[in-house]
C-alpha cells in the first residue's frame, strides 16, 4: 500500500469514527461502502488507462486534510461580494458551509435549497433514495472517496411544475491557511415533473496554498423537467480539482451542462449523462483555457439507453505556454435506442510550441436506425487571419487575442444573456493572452 493511499484511508476512517454517533444507519452504510471501494481501487496512477493523462502526484506530496472549522474572514467576505450572482446562494469555504454569507431568500414556491448537512437531518428519506444512485460507486476511486467523507454540500429540490427564473448559486471557495485542505462537496438535485431551474456551481481560490477539491454532483430530472447547469472553475495555481457530474433524465426532459475550466494546477471535469426516458434532449458544452504548466482534463460519457433522444456536445480548448489539455468523450447508443440523434465535436487551439492536447472522441453504436457524428481538430491561429488584422494596423498580440476570443466565443454565446454570461466573459478575458489574472480577494 502506498503512503498516499494510507494517508487517505486513515483520514476517512477517523472521519467515520467521529461522525458515526448521530448518523442514520443508511448514511453509515454509504460512507462505509465508499471507504471499502476506495481502498479496493486505490489511488490511480499513469498505468490506469482512464487516468494516464491526469497527473496526480500532488495527492501524495501534500498532506491534505478536511477543514475542521468554518472560516469567514474579511478576505472571504470580499470574494463573496465579487463572485456572487443575484439571487439565492450557498457559500462554502474549504468545504464548510458559511451561513452568514449565504442567501436563502427569493426562492419561488416549490424550490428548496439547503446545505447537505441540514438535509441529512431533515430529508433522510429522500436522500436515502437518491444519494449514490447515479455515481457508480466502486467504478471511480474519487467518487468513492467523496462518499467515504460525505458530510457537506447542497440539496436542491424542485416540486412538480416549480419554476425558478433566477439562477441558484453554489459558491465554493478554496482558501487553506492552516495547511493543505481537502473539500468533498456532494451536490444533489432532484427536479420534479415539469419543473425548470438554473444552477451555477462556482469554484474559486483564495491565496496560494495547495488545496484539493473532490466534488460530486448528482442530477435527477423528472419527466418534462429542465435544468441548465453551469460550472465555473477558477481555483488557484496550486489547486487540484476533481469534479464529477452525473445526470439521469426522464421522458421529454431537457438538460444542459456548460463547463468552464480556467483554474488549478490540475483540474479534471467529468460529465456522465444518461437518458432514462424517451424524447430527452441533452447538451454538453465545455471550454477549457490553460496557460503556464496547467493540466486541464475533460471527460464525457453520454449514454443513449432509450429510443428517440437527442444530444449535442461541443468542447473547445485553448492552451498556451506549456499547458496541457485532454478531451476524452464517449457516446454510447444501446441496442434498443433507435432514432437516436447525437453529435460530438471537439476543437482545440494551441497558442505556443510547448502546449499539448490529447483528444479522443468515441462513438459506440449498437442500434441501426440512428443519426450520429463526431469529430475533433487541433490547430493554431490562422496565419491569413493574423495577416489580415495586422495589415490593418492591429499589433500582433492584440490580433492573437482577438482571434482567440473569437474561437472561444461560441461557448460563451451559448450562455443566455445575463449575469452568468457576464461572469463567464469576465473569467475568460482574464485568461486570454495579455489578460490580467483575476483576483478574487477584493
UniProtKB/TrEMBL annotation:
<dbReference type="InterPro" id="IPR055346">
    <property type="entry name" value="Fe-S_cluster_assembly_SufBD"/>
</dbReference>
<feature type="domain" description="SUF system FeS cluster assembly SufBD core">
    <location>
        <begin position="181"/>
        <end position="407"/>
    </location>
</feature>
<protein>
    <submittedName>
        <fullName>Fe-S cluster assembly protein SufD</fullName>
    </submittedName>
</protein>
<dbReference type="InterPro" id="IPR045595">
    <property type="entry name" value="SufBD_N"/>
</dbReference>
<dbReference type="Pfam" id="PF01458">
    <property type="entry name" value="SUFBD_core"/>
</dbReference>
<feature type="domain" description="SUF system FeS cluster assembly SufBD N-terminal">
    <location>
        <begin position="7"/>
        <end position="170"/>
    </location>
</feature>
<dbReference type="InterPro" id="IPR000825">
    <property type="entry name" value="SUF_FeS_clus_asmbl_SufBD_core"/>
</dbReference>
<dbReference type="GO" id="GO:0016226">
    <property type="term" value="P:iron-sulfur cluster assembly"/>
</dbReference>
<dbReference type="InterPro" id="IPR011542">
    <property type="entry name" value="SUF_FeS_clus_asmbl_SufD"/>
</dbReference>
<dbReference type="InterPro" id="IPR037284">
    <property type="entry name" value="SUF_FeS_clus_asmbl_SufBD_sf"/>
</dbReference>
<comment type="similarity">
    <text>Belongs to the iron-sulfur cluster assembly SufBD family.</text>
</comment>
<dbReference type="Pfam" id="PF19295">
    <property type="entry name" value="SufBD_N"/>
</dbReference>
Amino acid at each position: 500500500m502506498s503512503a498516499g493511499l494510507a494517508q487517505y484511508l486513515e483520514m476517512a476512517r477517523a472521519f467515520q469514527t467521529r461522525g458515526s454517533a448521530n448518523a442514520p444507519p443508511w448514511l453509515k452504510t454509504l460512507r462505509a461502502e465508499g471507504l471499502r471501494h476506495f481502498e479496493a481501487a486505490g489511488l490511480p496512477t499513469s498505468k490506469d488507462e482512464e487516468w494516464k493523462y491526469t497527473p496526480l502526484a500532488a495527492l501524495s506530496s501534500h498532506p491534505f486534510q478536511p477543514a475542521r472549522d468554518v472560516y469567514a474572514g474579511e478576505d472571504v467576505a470580499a470574494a463573496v461580494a465579487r463572485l456572487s450572482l443575484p439571487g439565492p446562494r450557498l457559500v462554502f469555504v474549504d468545504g464548510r458551509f458559511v451561513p452568514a454569507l449565504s442567501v436563502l431568500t427569493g426562492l419561488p414556491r416549490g424550490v428548496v435549497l439547503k446545505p447537505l448537512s441540514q438535509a441529512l437531518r431533515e430529508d433522510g428519506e429522500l436522500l436515502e433514495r437518491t444519494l449514490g444512485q447515479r455515481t457508480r460507486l466502486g467504478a471511480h476511486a474519487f467518487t468513492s472517496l467523496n462518499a467515504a467523507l460525505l458530510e457537506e454540500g447542497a440539496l436542491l429540490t424542485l416540486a412538480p411544475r416549480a419554476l425558478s427564473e433566477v439562477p441558484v448559486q453554489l459558491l465554493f471557495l478554496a482558501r487553506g491557511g492552516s495547511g493543505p485542505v481537502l473539500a468533498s462537496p456532494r451536490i444533489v438535485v432532484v427536479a420534479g415533473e415539469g419543473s425548470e431551474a438554473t444552477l451555477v456551481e462556482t469554484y474559486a481560490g483564495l491565496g496560494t496554498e495547495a488545496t484539493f477539491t473532490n466534488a460530486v454532483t448528482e442530477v435527477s430530472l423528472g419527466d418534462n423537467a429542465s435544468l441548465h447547469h453551469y460550472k465555473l472553475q477558477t481555483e488557484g495555481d496550486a489547486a487540484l480539482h476533481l469534479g464529477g457530474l452525473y445526470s439521469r433524465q426522464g421522458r421529454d426532459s431537457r438538460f444542459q451542462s456548460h463547463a468552464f475550466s480556467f483554474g488549478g494546477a490540475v483540474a479534471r471535469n467529468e460529465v456522465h449523462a444518461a437518458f432514462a426516458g424517451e424524447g430527452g434532449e441533452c447538451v454538453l458544452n465545455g471550454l477549457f483555457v490553460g496557460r503556464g504548466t496547467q493540466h486541464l482534463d475533460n471527460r464525457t460519457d453520454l449514454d443513449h439507453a432509450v429510443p428517440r433522444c437527442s444530444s449535442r456536445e461541443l468542447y473547445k480548448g485553448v492552451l498556451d505556454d506549456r499547458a496541457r489539455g485532454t478531451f476524452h468523450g464517449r457516446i454510447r447508443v444501446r441496442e434498443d435506442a433507435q432514432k437516436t440523434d447525437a453529435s460530438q465535436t471537439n476543437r482545440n487551439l494551441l497558442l505556443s510550441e510547448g502546449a499539448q492536447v490529447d483528444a479522443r472522441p468515441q462513438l459506440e453504436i449498437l442500434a441501426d436506425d440512428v443519426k450520429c457524428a463526431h469529430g475533433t481538430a487541433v490547430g493554431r491561429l490562422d496565419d491569413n487571419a493574423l495577416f489580415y488584422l495586422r495589415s490593418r494596423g492591429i499589433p500582433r498580440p492584440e490580433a492573437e487575442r482577438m482571434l482567440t476570443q473569437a474561437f472561444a466565443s461560441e461557448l460563451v454565446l451559448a450562455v443566455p444573456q445575463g449575469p452568468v454570461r457576464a461572469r463567464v466573459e469576465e473569467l475568460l478575458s482574464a485568461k486570454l493572452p495579455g489578460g490580467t489574472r483575476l483576483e478574487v480577494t477584493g
